[in-house]
Amino acid sequence: MINIVRIALESSAQSAALALCVALILAAARIRSGAVRHAAWTAVLCGMMLMPVLSRITPKVPVTMPLPPLPYADLPAADEVAPPQQASAALSGSADLQLRNNPAPQPSAAISKRLPLPSLIVVVYLTGLLFSLFRLIPGWRAARRISRSCEPVQTPFSGVDVCESPIVTTPLTVGLLSPRIVLPLIWREWTNTKLLAVLAHEAAHVKNRDSLVNLAAYLNRCVFWFHPLAWWLRKKLATTAEHACDEAGAQAVGDTRDYASVLLEVAALAIPHGARCAFVGAGMEGDGGLEARIDHILLDGSQRAVSATRKAIVALACAVVLIAVPACRQVSSVKAPEKPTLLPEVQALIGIGSRSLFSDPQVQSQLEAARASLEQSADASVLAANGKALVNRFIPLAHFGREGFDVGAAAIARALQLDPKSQEVRRAQVLAYSRQLINISRGNPEDPETPKKLAFIDGELKGSKDVSFLLETATPMVSIRWPTGQGPVAAPEMFAVGKAAVERALRLDPNSVWAHQLMLKTQDQELVANLQESVWHGPLDSQHQAIQALPVGARFRELSILAATAGVSAMNTAYTHESPEPMWQAAGNYANEALALAPQAKDDPYYGTSFFRANMVAAMSALVRHDRATAIAFARKAMEAPPTEALRYPIVNARPWSNWHYPQIVIAQLIREGERDSAADLASQYSRIVIADKDRWEAAAAAIRKGETPDWVRQPVAGPRPPTGMKDSH
Q1: 409-419 per-position pLDDT tens digit
Q2: What is 533-714's CATH topology?
């Protein structure tokens, strides 16, 4: 689809260039002859209609053409037609930050139901095309009606078919393959001079196949209805066709003044009857502008004669541009920069590992080699790329690679001095500052440069429209353990900057799954910050006791989270060789206790998520006991939960961090228990709730109904250990 739009734009630009070249040729050769000008513009018409083909068969000549950028041509907007790869710092399962290099979620292409812009362009184009073609119908019918009413007549003018019709008031030529002249019934009253002028004019239309050219020009305007050249070209061809035929008529009469008088008389016949359909055929009253035609006959007569040599030169020049212009291909006016490669010394340093002992002489040697190599470089792009690789690899804390981080940060700082306006360099500096601030804040040291660094990050984020960059930077900033209140230095400020970036990303792309998931993480962090730590941290029994002191809505929410957390512990027994049943029983007890509070908690903003979660845990607890009927009842009840953002965009690392496991493990266990129909129904119902992974669940439901078994069903009942990186749901 993008290629179609690209070809249309290239053809439009090339056609405009072709028309300009022909106009310059005619002006340079001082051509006044209507016949020669008509032939030249007919060549332009043919070139415009065949431009997409000519551009592919002529030799390629790369040139820079100022075409507007196509949407999605290089990189689609986040979560539109083909979501880009996004990378983010990982979030930890305990809500404490552990920076890793895990890929961020890639939203499903199905989540955006908006019509992509390239598709919208095609729809608008086809609408214009069909409307233009529809307007051909009246003219086509009129031409057929005229042809059927014609009766052949004998005239002194030989060589063409002439007929008369009672439904025409002015002479015209109709027919594409076998054109003929049609005269009004009053032609017998005309003088010989007038009849000769009319027949000579119309015979020129027949000879030049003007009816066919006229139709081709109209069809070209239908195809390129969006291009001003197509509209101008059709009018220009009509004008030059009349000039060429007027020249033939004047030559036949032998007196330009007598011919001009005939033109006025024929025009007077047409005026009382109104305008005719412009695309019926070619008529003597024409579309060329009566005053301009008379001026052309009377004033330009001395300049119309064109020698055979000049005709040949004009024809050759037009042929050259007709080949040369389509051969020109668009190339980008800005070369895509080559991705800087890592310096060998930097690659060697990265290869030693992020927690290697820098006191080791060999490691120190590699560190110094990398530092020296970067200090010798004066290329901002190379410095930024290598510095970014180092700050991504090493943690800016003592004993955990601080020396490696410092080398990378210094390289980025130097790159910023060399090229302070480079977006690539400034983004690398944002990465270095954010990692430094977040990791240092965990150790709670005083850093007088923190406000300055945070202001730099905030300024870059506020000025960016790149959703991926905003979210990649914001992910670790909204994942710090103390987003508000008392905590490490600048933690609340960093959290606020990150939250603002997430909100900006959502405004730029309301359909971004990553942005929705990160906003859920942000809200969860704020919620946790206002809870006592004993509610969400520590042994399950202690958490359960602390939860009892909460108001009903909060108690319902936290009990459902506690139930899911117990389920995580049950799944993890696969790694400790313990039986999961006792922990699943505890999870079921917490879930049932939560569900008993559900009628009183319907006003809680988290009600839908908590209701879904508690029913899912209760369903899995029943399945572990092989109570399939009870499990199916709980699972179906879960699907009745009021939709919430957390259900539409489930996220791994928001409490409970296993939220995304439950539909999958419940449906998988139902299949193992032989309840395929119930499993397929639940998968289908869940696909109508979730957005982040909608098409995967639709496919799973269809596969289960066909008797197929999704790969994730083959995992053990205990399930995999929940990942610590932020990834796409499920």
Answers
A1: 999 999 999 99
A2: 1.25.40
